Every structure is written in structure tokens, then in C-alpha cells.
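Exam review. A common question shows you a sequence with its C-alpha cells and asks you to describe the fold in words. Practice with the pair below. Do the first one on your own.
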Amino acid sequence: MVGRSGELQKQKQIQTLSPQQILVAELIEIPATELEQRFNAELEKNPALTEDVPATHDDPNSDSPSDENDQNDTNTNDETDPYSIDAFDNDMLADYRTEDDIPDYKLRDVSVSPSSTNSEIPISNNPSFYDVLKEQVGTQAFSDRETEIAEYIIGSLDHDGLLRKPVESLAAELELYQDLPTSASEVEKTLRIIQTFDPAGIAATSLQECLLIQLRRKPESQLRDDGITLISKYWDDFINKRKERIMQAMKLDEDQYEELFTSLTRLNPRPGSALDEYQGKANQVITPDFIVTTTDEGEIVLRLNDDFVPELRISQEFAQLLNGRQQNRKQLSVKENEALAFMKDRIEAAQNFIAAVTQRRNTLLAVMQNIIDIQRAYFIEGDEDMLQPMILKDVAERAQLDISTVSRVKNSKYVQTDFGIFPLSHFFGHKYTTNEGEEISVRMIKSILKECIETEVKGHPLSDDKLSEILKGKGYPIARRTVAKYREMLGIAVARLRK
């Protein structure tokens, strides 16, 4: 009996989501690339829902088919409101009047230029990006040995398409894992050939080299040459936005600098963006769900990238038809009453869908805004070392949302920033607490670990145990196995291979 009682108690504790909550959750999970398709599907199945095309999008000199339908509305007070519906005159339908207003989810931020909309990253994963690079290996006059080295280099690229491992480590790994003794110079020679592959910038060993490779492939011009000079000689000033110093050093006026800076921001800092978790999916285009830009004054501007989806409202014709039938309800037959009930159901479904879209928009903006608030330094500077430790709970508490809701947004959304397009998961990281109680991120731990290894005595590399002791001495209680995991994530070989 106790077991049965406990089972009943558990069943009572299960929270049942309403159909509206399920709809909102479904829309939140839909990425930007699928949102238009979902809207169109809803338009097709619900005659009470219609797409609203603002009058400003039409040719004023053309005869719109809707003009005839609108002639009866010319005497209404809502003449200038293309979203209005004036047919709901009885109390039963009064709740639907507010759906005629401009949909909240389509309010635009006019501070963002139109050029920032519909930004896309093509992902050609069928075949996979690795396969595309390997096909280019086949176009080279490589020996079997060089082909094996080239394919190992390709397999060592990170999700940005950059090579974070030193060629010495690759040479050591080829001997250890592939039984292929080689030298750093031989790996370096093959790497330089791979760097001529498409897309430009692939297999670069740093962001600076990535941009230089792309610039050197451009047709000769003064703008190209100035870009090469800036990136190669004034890199530190460039990444720290020291505009005046660059202008003075390169003898550029304001217009010349702006033209140069704009051309550099069009380069792709992530040529291997197809090497992320979406590898293996069919051909796909990733459209960022958010666009975040930073002004010269340090103001961060956020907008939802949804201009490509239709604006929705209740169909005026459908509403008028329902209103007419409702007024003559006493004279309706059984079948006509059934039709009336169906029409009321469709209008309610349309109202619920518009409300869910509005809630989706508000939720997405709330999550992204709080991510920006926590990671403000990163969105201004673009330095990953400035990313703060942040978990789902941090954002959920600030946005006053459930953790599950934040998780849905985080797992399916992308954001376009001044520094590239990233999945929202890029901005989240686990926390560690130092001996002094300070919270630090995994990225910070990796940075400290890398610094320890880079400053180790040549010929006497530090073991993972020793690195763990050093980190603990610095106040970071990291276990040896965790040190090993982060070292591998950094692409750093074990101690015996670093001698």
C-alpha cells in the first residue's frame, strides 16, 4: 500500500503543460532557418490566419487585388492602420480585437542597417567539410606519405578551421599514432600547401595568419596592400581598436581608415565553421537568430533576425464572415452551427499562434540580452579571454525564466557578432571556485594551463601531475585527469613528447 501511495503521489507531482505552453516551447526551439517554413505551414492550415504585407512594400501606382476588398472600410477610423479589423462588434468576439495591432514580434530596431539582415553561413556537409578538403588533397601531386601527413593535418583542425597545434606536436603524433616518423619541417611544408586550399584562410595557425592568407588571395589593389600592412605590422593595435595610432602610423585619413576597416571586417575569421557539431547533417544554411553590433561609443545593439518571416494577423475576411454568421446564429442549421464552431476554433488557434510568436520573441530577446549583459566585455572587445564563467542558471535567474527554457534557446540558436557567428553555447562555460572563493571559467583555466606549459623549462616538460600541483599552488584546485583533458583540448602533447 505504501508503494502504491507513493506512486500516486509522484503522479500528482507531474506538471502537465498546456497546449499553449507546448506551442511556445516548440517555437522557441525552432531555429531561424526553419521559422519561415513553420509560419507558412500555419498559414496553409488555418484560414483565419493571414500574412500581412505593409502598404509601403507595394507599388503605389499598381492596382492591388485587395483594393476592392478594402473599399468598404474607407469610412472607418482605422483607415491608416493596415492591421485593423473592424468587424468584431459583439461582446463574444471582443477578445480578438487586439490581434489586429502590429504584431509585437515584428517591431524592428531601426538602428540596425538592412545589410545586417538575413546573414547566413553555408554549411556544405554532404559530403562533409573534411571530405571537401581531402578531395583537394587529391588534386595535389602528393606522394602516399605526403597524403597521409596532409590528411592528419586536416583531421587536426579545430571547429574554426584553424590549426592550434604546433607542427612539432603533429610530427610527434604522426610517429606515435600513425607509425610515420617525420620532421616538423616536413609537416610545415605540407601545411603550407593545405593553406592554399579553399576556403581561403583554412589551416592557418592563428587568426592573424588566417586574415593575411585571405588578403593575399585578393586582386592587387591599394586597399589590399594596406590591409596586409595593417594586419602584419599593426595587429595589436587592430585587435585593440587603436584607431588613431593606426591612422597616424599608416598616414590614413578618416575616410581611408573606415574603408580599410570595413574591408577587413568582411574577412572570415572562421573559415572552417562547418567543422562544428552540425557536421554530418544534410546541406544546410545557418541563419543567425540574433544580430549583435557594437557602436564606436560602446553601445551594444541587439535585434532579432526575423525580417524574413511573414507578419501575421487575423484574416479580416474570415472575421467578417464569422461575425455575420454569429449575428444570424438562431437561423443556422445544425451543419451551419458546426461550421460556426469550426470558425471560432480557427480564430482562437490563430490568436494563440500569434501570442506564442510574441512570447517566443520576448523570450529569445530576454535570454540574449542577459547573455550580453554578463558577457559585455567580450561583445565590445571580441577577446575570448574576457568571457565570464556563465551557466544556464545565471541567465535563467536574471531573465526570470525556467532553466529548461534557457537551455532550449542555448541549444538551437546562433548569434552574429562583430567578431563572427557563434552558437549561443559558445558563451557558456562551467565554473571553478578558487581557494579564495573567486569564480573562474574553464577558458581561464585553459589559458593558465597553456601559460604554464609555454613557460616550462626546455627539455624538462611538466607532467600532468606536476601541472595539477602548480595550478593548486596558484589557487586553482584542478585534478590531474582534468588537467589531462584540458591539455588535450588545447592540442598539447603529453610531457614525453614535448622534450
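Now try the second one, then compare your answer with the model answer below.
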Amino acid sequence: MSITVRFAPSPTGLLHVGNARTALLNWLFAKKLGGRFLLRIDDTDAARSTKAFEEAIYRDLGWLGLAHDGTDRQINRLVKYSTAFYTLQASGRVYPCFETEGELERQRSLLAARKLPPIYNRASLDPVNAEKWKAEGRKPHWRFKLSRSKVGWTDLVRGPVEIDTATMSDPVLVREDGAFLYTLPSVADDIDMAISHVVRGEDHVTNTAAQIEMFQALGASIPKFAHFPLLVGAGGEALSKRLGSLSLEQLREDGMEPLAVAAYLAKIGTSDPVEPRQTLGELAAEFDFTKIGRAPAHFVAEELEGLNAKTLHAMPYSAVANAVPQGEAFWDAIKPNLNKLRDIAEMARLVSGPVTPVIEDAALATAAAALLPPEPWSQETWGAWTKAVSAQTGAKGRGLFHPLRLALTGLEHGPELKKLLPMIGRDKALARLNGETA
């Protein structure tokens, strides 16, 4: 079976971690099986869609490494949606409705008062009502007529699913102004693009029953479906109010590594441990729908930050060479102390200066300065030098190493000095031990 999946974001805002997870799971599934990942821009909402947000979608997916195999915009495909609409109309599966939004809201309120589900009563199918409302000059919106029977499928995440469409309102396909809503364009595109698998959040489960009936009404093959649980916050709260701070753009500005974000979103809510990965290919090879749990996946910013640090610690120099002109030895020395790649600037200052030393033990610093060996230095220099300083001063353990670190770097903690000292060099080391900024 040829695998083709799609990610269909609306350019009405920035991609957030929930969107990104949907795109990522689609991409991983397709790439594992040698399939295609299509990007479909859902821009039929002309009032809210913007070019800036569309450009941001491409930029964010590119940053995450999710290259697409084809793309299109729904605004370019309106003729196909009209063709699908007329096919449904010819078979009697769509019908005009004339109620105003106020009338529909009153109907929902009455049903709620009687503790009944808010299902549209199909009053517009009564010829008397329809003629009356037409005579008033009302313009119709159009609904898809559900079969009001049970629709079932085997979900790749949830297992067997059955939904009775009698518990649903007939979905609106076209508004009064002629604009298409989500359902029909989505189905028409999935048919036209030969989408084999629809991978999305479980908030679409109910929609799927209506869409399966629409696939059938259009005489098309039904794709397979996989509905995964949504992301929630650390305490189980909805992320909706925090999405602005959880956009991919914000994560990028905060210094998160795309591989760390991808690994985190791929692994939370699954049976796999959340651990660093070197490539998206590794994540694709490990992907399996059966690993996705049924409980919501908890997005915890602190966990992502921890994974970001671990990802950097595991990165080879080849992956960061452009960002670390100081060379491989410098990267090897500093990477265990990085939380974010931008921390490199502070690490580089320790080598190139200026560093204002902190002299905690003046006598020790003076003795250490006098015992500095001549260059060239290597990683063995630190051990030999500190052994000599200890022998002369009697200082050991923290009493030896902590004052030297403060004098050489001005910091309480940092990279291993046996690796850093040769890069600092004798002149700067001597000046700092003497209390001079260098």
C-alpha cells in the first residue's frame, strides 16, 4: 500500500506544539514506511488567513526539519470543492437550511433545557418551512445529510471505534455567503491527493464518522485513521491558554534545539523513554502507533529544557561546526555545561576574555602563578600544575580547586579546567591569578 499523509494547518496563527506534534507524527509515520508527507494550507477562511502566518508555517516546519513532498493551498482548489458539492447535491446528500443563527441557538437552548443533545432537528427538510423561509428572502446554508446509523472503523491508536451519527447534527458544508467550511474541502482534498492515512488529534474522532459517510457518498476509498490523545499541561490542564508561549517561533527564540523539540513531541505520551536523538531518521525508525498511550500527553516545559541540554551534550562537533568557530576541542570542553547553544558566547569569553577574576585565596593564587609551567600546554598540564601547587601550599580538594576556578574563570562552576586551561593560555592565566582582568 502506498503511504501518503497530510498536514493541513490554517494560516490564522503561529504553529504551536500541538500543531507541531500532529505534523511530526504524520512525517515520522510516512518516512518510516517510505511514504509521502504533503503540506496543505487550509486558507479558505479569507477573513482570518494571512500570508505572514502562511510563511511562518513553512519557516517553522523547515526549522523542525519536516520537509514536505508536495504542497498546495485550499484557496486554489475551490473548483474541486464545488464539483464535490454538486455530486453530493445530485445524490440528495446535501440540503439547504434557512434558520438564522439566533433561531438555531434558541433550538439548542430548548434542547439543553430538556437535557437533550443539541442535534439539529432538520426543520428545513419540511417543505412548508422551506417555502416559507424562501418567501422571506432568506439565503440558505447547506448541510450534509447523515445516515443516522452507526459508523465504525479500526483506529490505529484507539482500536475499534463506533459512532452513531444519529447523535450528531448534520454538518454545515457551505455558509450562506457561499464559503466552504472545513469538512467538505478536507474530504475532497483527501480523495484528490490519495491520502492513505489521516493522522490527527482525538478531538476529530466524531468528525471522522461524518467524513466516512462523505467519502462513501462521493464513491471514494476510505483512508485509515489514527487519532492520538491531545497535549495537556504538567497538571493536566488544557494548553489552549498558553499556546502563545508554546509556539515553535517562541521555542526557537528561547534557544530550543529543533531535534530536542522533535524528540520530546515524538516520545511524550508513548511507551518509549524521552531521550535525545541525533537525527529525525532515528525517531522515524522507532515510530509505531502501538506505542502511543490512550492518556493525554503531558507537555512540561522544564522537561523539554532538560532534554534540550542532553541533546546538546550528545551532539558531535560536525552538527554544530558553523555555530562553534572555536573548533572541536573547544566544543568537546564546553558542551557538558551547555543548556542552550547560545550559552557558547559565555563559554567563549572564558577563553578569549575579558574575565574579571575572583581571588578567594590570595596566597594560593600567588603560589599557583609562580608555579605555572611554560607552554606548550595540553590536557595533562592541569593535573601536573595543581599537583605542584598542592605540594607547595598543602591545599587539597575544594580548598585547592575552587579558588583556582574562581581566579581563572570568575565562576563557581564551568567546564573541566584540564580542557579549558590550554585554551586560556599562560598569559591570560597568569594575569587572572594575579587578580587582573584578562
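Model answer, second protein: The domain at 71-184 is CATH 3.90.800.10 (Glutamyl-tRNA Synthetase; domain 3). Residues 45 and 179 are 8 Å apart (CA to CA). Full marks require stating both points clearly.
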